[in-house]
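User: Please predict the structure of the protein below. I'd like the answer in structure-token form so I can feed it into my own downstream comparison script.

Assistant: Understood. Taking the following sequence of 366 residues as input:
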Amino acid sequence: MKSLRQILMVGLGLLMALGSLAGCKQETAPSAQQDPQAVAKQAAKDPLAAWQPQFDPSGAEYTYILSNVDHPAIEGIAVGYHIRDKVWQRSGGRLYVDFRPMGQLGGEKDVIKKLKLGAVQGMLCSSVAAVNVADRLGVVNLPFVVDSFEKLETFRRSPELFDDFRRAAVAQGILAVDFTGYGTYGWATKEPVRTLEEARRVNFRVAQAPVNIDSYKAWGLKFTVMPWPDVSQALQTGVVTGLDHTPIVCSITKKFNFANNFTRLDYAQGLYIHLLNKRWLEGLPADLQAILLQTIEEESAKARTLTRDQQQRELAAARSRGVQIFQLAPADRQQLIELSEPVYDSWAEKIGQGYLQRVRRALADR
């Protein structure tokens, strides 16, 4: 028979074990009344926590690694997760789209190299960087060519225009299967810019992209080529006094904190071009190829619609925070279009004279 001391020790051990289990439950399943600051801290530790799959992907026969450098708060990036979930459902768990946003796999130039090698199978590549893959992909970055949501849809839905774009990098083993977006480009500035004359006083940050650089040279505007991570500090310190980007990105990344004016120039659509390793795609069973491509097409179309709505929401949100929104005077915008002719001439040689003419002609009256 056990002693009283042994019985008491066993009982104490059980109480401690139950207490420990209760504590674990509270930590792993916080109540709805948990401190909001604690929830915010948890989200800051893992900003992608809300995007984790609601299924176990470990049993998938095939995995499609899809990279991007930006945050899924942008609708054109969140599409990666929507593709993931729908492909998983349609394939019966055979194909897992392993979406890696926020630069988890490196910067865009690094990922492009991995994509060509097949180490990464897919990439939502920004349109400003896509020209490093193939010159023809730069057609969407030319000023005042694909400069509205309507023109973008016309371009995408026209086989005559999109098929040549889709196969622009096929010689490198890459297909441009579709695209989403992040809005229309304009100017976030520290001082109001309503006219071209006022724009000439601004030092604009532009992306490390040849089309953008050529455009600003042709327009005769002052600019500084700068990596994206340096932009916030450069705006704060006055190294640059303006930013060439879209209202969605300026709002979500809080650039309006340092440049609280935005001029709607709408000279190009910012895109995420869905690049895919051709050899890997052709190695999939035919039914999975069809599922993946169909899902990418459907979800990309939805994302473009959501992007249009998101741009209006972010502009309204910016106004509510005191950001002044301007529209460049029509005469000044027309002057920029005319100044862009040397850009069209120089890039026609790279893109293809006939192709560029077809694109401009098809979109001219849209």
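That's the full token string. The radius of gyration is 25 Å.
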